[in-house]
Amino acid sequence: MPKLPRANAIKHIAAFKRAGWIVNHIEGSHHILVKAGSQIHLSIPVHAGKELGIGLLRRLIEKADMTQEEYCMYFLKKL
Length: 79
Hints:
Structural class: alpha+beta
CATH architecture: 2-Layer Sandwich
Strand order of the largest sheet: 1-2-3
Number of helices: 3
């Protein structure tokens, strides 16, 4: 299992966008992502100068029905 990347939320949102998710709306500091044909939504907190927590990232990847390997490929722009 690859090590998940440590980065700010904006970079992780970009990776989810490459995987087909889109920003539906923003509620305060949380970006809400949705995907066509899915009832699931991802809520990603965006705080300046802070990295997204690794536990939260794992839960988001699981909720998005992706493997950690697949997510890392999107994050590294290889998919």
